[in-house]
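@channel anyone free to eyeball this complex?
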Amino acid sequence: MTTDWGLLGPVLVQAIGETLWAVSVTLVLGGLFGFILGTVLYTTRQGNILSNAPVNTVLNVLVNIVRPIPFIVFIAFIQPVTLGLLGTSIGVPAIIVPMTIAASFAFGRIVEQNLVTIDPGVIEAARAMGASPLRIITTILVPEALGPLILGYTFIFVGVVDMSALAGLIGGGGLGNFAILYGYQRFNYPVTIVAVIVIVILVQLGQFLGNALARKALRR
Amino acid sequence: MSAMVQFDSVSKVFEVGKRRVTAVDGISLTIEKGEIYGIIGYSGAGKSTLVRLINGLERATSGRVLVDSEDITALSEARLRRVRGGIGMIFQQFNLLRSRTVAGNVAYPLRIAGWPKARRDARVAELLDFVGLGDRATSYPEQLSGGQKQRVGIARALATEPKLLLADESTSSLDPETTSEVLRLLQRVNRELGITVVVITHEMEVVRSIADRVAVLDSGRVIEHGTVFEVFSRPKTPTARSFVSTVLRDQPTTSDLERLRMSHPGRIVTAEVIDAGRIGSVLSHAMSTYGVRFEIVFGGISALQNRSFGSITLELVGEPDGVDALLADLRKVTTVKEVAA
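replying in thread with the prediction:
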């Protein structure tokens, strides 16, 4: 069977565009919310700069509830929220809502875990110099954990690309949808291969960029 | 002199689960402006908590802490941050920022204090010269030795021109040679810049070499305090005595005495030596006046705050009356302790 790339080409380009869009928006929003979540999780730990047991416990439980839900179930679970926010629960914009929430919780945990590795003595030194909690977050926590944070963010990027493939399920587009619709369901294996190659290249580029930035931050 | 730090019946209780741990137990203590004050104690004695009460890293449970006459126990966290800017602190593990260069570390407190860049740069250069690291400005902490890291720590602590420097076990992770290098630097900070220094340590040698006055801490209480000379020459508590004995090894221990006994059958006494004692003038007549032979069997004399201090242990051999007469005359010039009859 021959593939009409003249016809499929533009569809592929559009699918790539949709995936990039969903992934980028999710990374920006998920990165932001995840960073905030992780920082709050870390700083509200007992004895830390914003020590607050109730906030810490509630967030911890929330993260532990959300994180184990398989993403495909999570899309359905969060559908009322998506509908409320966007007025629709299908298509690429609609997949961004569950993707952002899932990515925020995943990245939040990673941020927290990386911040924990910072020497508490350094934070104490900053406090002793009169630094405020916000100042400590921006000038101590972020720079001191920057390398691992970038690597963690890169790790999340791969997960987000994975999630984006499920956009097709709810009538969104993207590379996942492309591979299933034009490759798998039409028994056109070369099309599936092409989709896989594009995704692999995308992930490789992201990983390469993340590694390079992390190396720069770690000076090694 | 006026007080730099005043503890007024200060206690600090930590709640660990359901247990209450009293780290600082009703301490009243005054640290004068311009002095180097040593606080010594074993680990768990409460000294790290005590020093953190001075810059409000820990809040007192009860009592008042006055820094330069300001009651800091009553201050809000925001006001307290301003007070902390005027107090330098150095740490056992140096606590330098790995992500910043030496210059960046020293500049950090100046950024917090809002110094403009030009003044900041000039100040950093001046500080690095003061601690002898002018050529390492662009190095990262991991490229430095322990002593160099602590010197960066000191430069950073001095950046905002504090009146008070807190040194928390600042030499405990350094080798002896580097320790004395850092201690000399702390002494210069005190003498040349007039900064009051509070030194927290478990090493009596640190107290001996730089402190003016010392407080001995045990289970959250000050069990002894005074000038270093007073505490070294007249330790009143077993804890203080045991600290003193780590530095001054002039007094024979029980096992030393047992060993001495085997070859020295006469009476064995220990005579204290302070400054120019006149023990020699008595001993020079030992044979002619008292008919007593003496042998120096143990002892040592050290320098302490520019004074001589120590003891010598003597074996005295002769008629009992002669020995008693000699001891009576020795006791007129110094303190003599009979250690083995």
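from a first look: The CA atoms of residues 2 and 32 of chain B lie 6 Å apart.
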